[in-house]
Design goal:
Elements (H helix, E strand, L loop, with lengths): L4 H10 L10 H6 L4 H33 L5 H23 L1 H7 L10 H13 L3 H30 L10 H16 L6
Helix pairs in contact: 1-7, 3-4, 3-6, 3-7, 4-5, 4-6
Length: about 190
Amino acid sequence: MENLFPILLGTILINNLALTKLVSIGQLANFGDNEDQTLTLGLSAAVIMAVSSILSYVAFTFILEPLGVTVLNLLVYMLLVLLVTMAVTGFVKSRKPEMHAAVGKVLPLLAVNSAILYLILDMMNQGMEFLPMLLTSIGAPIGLLFAFILYGAVRERLAVSDAPKAFRGLPILLIYAALALMALSGLNGII
């Protein structure tokens, strides 16, 4: 059995989907107007990603592959992501109705979050065993939540800064993403 801690830490920081692979960067740039909304959206995306990837692994390993219908994998993955998104949206609506009113229009967009589908497809293509898949399914959402928090903080800081007009909005966030990528790539040899 290989050492599993590097898988978890590597998925959170070094192979962070949003910061190093730039998956879902457009959604990060537009989600959340304040800290509470950003945290709620980040936690929702993390839960959807973790549960969907674990359920997709179980569906592929125990249903699709034994039945020989692996061509239906994308359809099954999207169905699972939609079901988990609906469950998380219902949970947020029942527990925090005021937050649901603020972010309710954005929560369904998490169902088409490219990071979620990228993680599922990447794990299935790699043919991971259960324990590495479980750690990746836990680490990637934590990394996505980390990216949501970082982008939320950057957006708040940029709202009060005097950025040149040409760089306001998505361009400055892409520059930030490039700087974050360079900073995180320095950790690449450690783990």
